[in-house]
Amino acid sequence: MRLAVLDKGHSFGAKLMFGMIRLFSGQRVVDAVKLVMYRPEFYGNPMKRITHEAMRGPSAWSVGDRELMAAYVSKVNGTEFCIKAHSAVAGRAYQDDARVSATLADLDTAPISEPLRATLAMLGKLARENTVDAGDMRAVLAAGASRAQVEDALAVALAFNVTDRLADAFNFAVPGPEAFASGAKFLLARGYR
Amino acid sequence: MADITEARKGVVARILEGEGKASREQRKAAFDNAGLSEPLRTLIEKVAKSARTVTDQDVAAVRAAALSEDQIFELVVCGAVGQAMRQHERGLAALAAAAERV
Known about the structure:
The structure holds 2 protein chains of 2 kinds. By secondary structure, chain A is an all-alpha fold. Chain A has a single domain, classed as Up-down Bundle (AhpD-like), CATH 1.20.1290.10. Helix content of chain A is 72%, strand content 0%. Chain A contains 11 helices and no strands. The radius of gyration of chain A is 17 Å and the shape is globular. Chain B starts with a helix and ends with a helix. Chain B contains 5 helices and no strands. Chain B has helices spanning 5-17, 24-32, 40-49, 56-64, 69-100. By secondary structure, chain B is an all-alpha fold. The interface between A and B is large, with 56 and 49 residues.
């Protein structure tokens, strides 16, 4: 973590919670949690409302689909922490890690639905080029995604285009697979609130 | 459908208009990635366009320019949220344009 305040500057209550997490999960608190728990009234609390609604709110996309979008956007952004974190959640939600790794390895041949494939391609372009055009969106709609599904996917991308930037700018440490497995279990049970 | 309209407004209002250690002018400039002076300009440009290339030196330079860690925290958050919001708006605009002609 690049800023010492994000690593060690938390309130007494937050530090107490970190101790409890460590006690019950056997894992150190990951930097993503440290970020949202630092001065949470400034960033963490208002941002969690976007992330939770995008990832767990009502949607025609499954939770696994949305976690896969989070992992895919993070892959395009090159953010290792978030790729691993959300691949773990998507794999657990789908009960299919192979589908997740195949999608991240090669979108064109991945065993996923056409609407999801086209949506991921559009989200990838948006992350990479900072913009998309009407033609890109027509391709997604033509592949069978509804307008509401595209809006839901854009909400997921918004959350992770913020989070990925912060993970990279603040240089989140990347823990081992046990930490991500434990995090995935928590995020599936509780969401992002 | 998920509805993030109010939550989106809430984040932007809080980070730009709420209490902070950095000035509101500076937070807005970081959000817009416009009108900043060095070395903050370089840090926020990287946060917006290629966050994975941010280095310890980029952050150290801003700290050496007398910004506190709390101010850097706020300004990096504003830079990240600003760029992601612009991407989101462009996505929604493209969708609206596509839906009109379907």
